[in-house]
Queue: 4 jobs
Job 1
Amino acid sequence: MFRHGCAATRDALRLRSAAHGTPVTTGGGPVLRVDFSSGELSRLRVAPGVDPLWETALSLHLLQNRQAALAFDPWRHEARAALARAGLVPATRALMGLCPPSGYFPDFLTPGCGDTDLDTALDRLLATPRRRLAAELSRLYADSGRAVPPGVRPLAEGRPEALRRLAWALRGYYTAAVEPYLSVMRAQAAADRAARADAALVHGAEGLLTGYDELPGWQCASGRLRAPYPVDRELRLEGRSLTLVPAFFCVRAPLALVDEELPPVLVHPLSPEPQWLARARRAEPLSSVAQLIGASRARLLRQLDRPMTTTGIAAALGLAASTASRHVSVLRDAGLLSSHRQGIRVLHRRTRLGDDLLAGAPH
């Protein structure tokens, strides 16, 4: 329960998100509010892709709960098995202590905004000032009425060996539980980025917020964004640029850094479809479909679990727009996909024949 009055306000500033464990209320419940000035809208930016340490932290949350079971239970099963095979279960438990399934977790664990690889992200983490380590770890345990445990004190004191152990654990966990799924994650992030770019061409900078009002409980219109959150909180930009970071392992609600002095980010869910892992596994070998219509066209057909523009397809598959357009034409002529105009956009979707072709492919 959250306390009322000033104490509740202080609690609000200590929490990131309820997306990973704490129930989120919609329809009159607590929300995260972002009100953009015209200048702040013009400075919106979209991260180049998924961020390795954000995905690490968010996937650690998902291993500790059962949210989005249809989408993530198969991944949970694979990830736990991979971590056990790698001898990383104790290290993972230690990381879970720093990333509890609900409430606050330290900002220093997520120093990036989708603009870096794992090595650079870990270098940033290793460079965290001692004062910040101590403050954020004290806050983490104070929320549950505890002092920093003895095993965590070396990290809170900024001892190099403790930071190196943390980086080792994060790298090991990422390699076992996140990296094997990067191709799917990157494709979804690229499609999300392309959709926002398409919308920005039509609606201006505010188009970068496209799709948010389709998420459960989210509202976005006229430079005002509202989203489910554990407590009422206003994210004040004060003229700064907000970076939108797509996150594969984010569920339903957004996340934002607690320290308002840090560059502001809004981490939003990519909402993968149920059965995404099964589809990815089916696509791994060169299937009979790929042999029949070509590997690139088979990948394109598999990508259309949801309607996409040619630009989105090209971004997701790493193709030139002209190449994607040619593949779309061939698949449309074969009756495997259809194209429909929606406003000024043309969306492509797989037909029933295309579904049947993929469903009948041997694995």
Job 2
Amino acid sequence: QTALSETTGLLFFTTALYTVPPVFQMLAVAPAVVARVSKEYLSGMYQVHTFVVAMTLSSTITAVIWAPVWQMITYTLADLGRDPVALLGMQLTLALNVLTMRILGFFLAMVVPGAALNVVIANLFVQMCMLTNRFYTKLPSWLQWITVMSIPRFTLRALLKIEYSWRDMFEVSPMHGSYIPAELTGTFQVTRERQMNVMESPNDAPPAGEMLAMAAISLGFLLLFALELTYQVWRLVVGYSQQEGLFDKCLPYVSVAEPDPGEEARAQAAMSQDSEVSYRGRTRAQSRANAGSLGALSDQSHEMFFPYE
């Protein structure tokens, strides 16, 4: 049972590792995303929904790839994953967790653009999710509704369902060699008390429900994110159109002074006179320099041919 507690703690740490950082990463990059989409939309490159689909597909590859790397290293050392199918199920669960938290971070950044405020709200939300995933405390009945939005709770419960079954037996005392079913261990008794429902014999508990719940939350908030991003871009377009309309209204009242032909002639004459004067000055200076050079050359020649004079 000691090994069971340690592996459960590792699964909890994995859940926390891929729950907290994605939210704050999206809060940091969201302003740049909005600025880029607005600029490229105004230039007519693409529509907003096209960007949302492309960003989701690209981030699915770049952001989710680190979860399998983590699992292959740590789960191999901890001897987790009873078979390749279970390991793939764990990787899919973590991938859904990462995508869901990233989309939630994007949506929060759209609704609350202020960096000082959205970081506080994100911290409160993430901590609430971590506190309600059964690892710390038991929630009262009137607070159970929070677990509906607790993404780490879905993730941890799915990981436990994939790794353990009610058919598993755990050694109670190595000295006596006695075993008890998994449901009777202290770890899974706590999960039952905290309404996690990881296992219940004689029925298997597949993790499909938790995966579908995270997928539904991801799609729902992705749609809300696309709508909010479209609204913000529309506001920028409206503001730009209003500025253009105001400029067009003010343009007829702006008078442009026509140039005076006499003034232009005088300016050209002054410029030509200045050019002529400067040219004469440069010519005289060049003549003096040439004369000085010739004088110095004649003196050197005289000294060369008449050194004792």
Job 3
Amino acid sequence: MVLGKLKDEIERIGRRALEKGLIKILPRNPNILTVSSLLIAFPTPLIVLMHVYWAYITALVLLILASGFDMLDGLVARYWGRTSKLGAFLDSTLDRYVDFIALIDLWLIHDGGFLGTIFLLLALLGSLMTSYARARAEALGVRMLGVGLLEREERLLLILAILIIYIITQLGSIIFYGLLLLAVLTNVTAVERLLVVVKSLSGGP
């Protein structure tokens, strides 16, 4: 998938940036980056409520920064050998908040009426179930990395892409159909993971 390839390329760029000196200015504690990601994204719903062009751009920049910090926390943890169960828990938990905030941002920009709200709720449900399915499956010993059409990183990239296209075009339909696309893809991913777990735990071929 295009978004998957883009995610891999962004991760490669992040690793190269760390090796070329970025690591020197980042905190060695990856949990600081994890928490910073949420703090950066947190004000964006209030910003987009201003409904002016510069507010949308500001929200986009903040979400990109939040995504960058979210990517870097894992890279920093592995670079310094500071991976931990606490870090994994914080990362997974706070990521859900950032996901929620990013989706709410889209809806606040253009709610799309009743259908738009339904699409938002379905996208939120699909996002949560995708993450829950992975967490529960891995707790049962079923590996979920790379399983599913739209993993968390691709999902966030898609949200950012929708926001960028909206800023360029100023067409509310971009948000409307973007939420529809997210609603479909997130729930398809959740179902994919459900089927993989059922097959694995039932001893299927």
Job 4
Amino acid sequence: AAPAAPRPAAPPAAPAAPQVPVAVAPQFPRPAFLEARRRPVDDIPGLRKPPSPWMLFVEDLKEELKIAVPNGSGAAQQQYISQKWMELPPEHKQKYRDRAQGELLRYQREVAKWKKDRGLDPSTPLTAEMVGHVLALERAREPGHRAIPPGETVTPADTVRSIVGIDPDVADVSEDGVAAITKAMELFVAKLATDSAATARHHNRAALQYADVHETLQTKDALLFLREDFS
């Protein structure tokens, strides 16, 4: 039998396509002072916080304390107050607890009214950032409030420098650089606030909500880079 013809050699495999590195945005830790401003707060300027039963007892004992421990140290006064509280009958302690509960309800009503007067959702937890923004807007509406001239800024330069310093690729920023970044940031925030306020008015809302900002980010081409799904 005739020998089998040799099989033709397989063509060389095509070279693999080079792997294109995918650019990944660097993740920078959020500064602690910014995180703190997002935490819920229960301290609103102008509203008296509810005292605890202990604080109510100390207030009632103030005059007696001046006589019993006239020149005593803080530790001596604290020891005297603690001893008097321990000697207090249970029914008297309950009276202080009831008073404290009444003060808490009073404070909750005042907070609810504070939110309602400013168009805020009563169920929304207040943060230091939110309270600060509301108070800043109220100050801006006060008679005689001076508008910010075009060449000036209100954000502290040290704050901007600290935020810029989070980027490990930035060694230092000149004063002119900080001033330019600050002004650009404030103009951007003003633009975002203006567009978001227009969205709120479109929905017949007097108070700006997060939903208005979110909708503005979805509909304004210039703000697409702020969307979470932007790539």
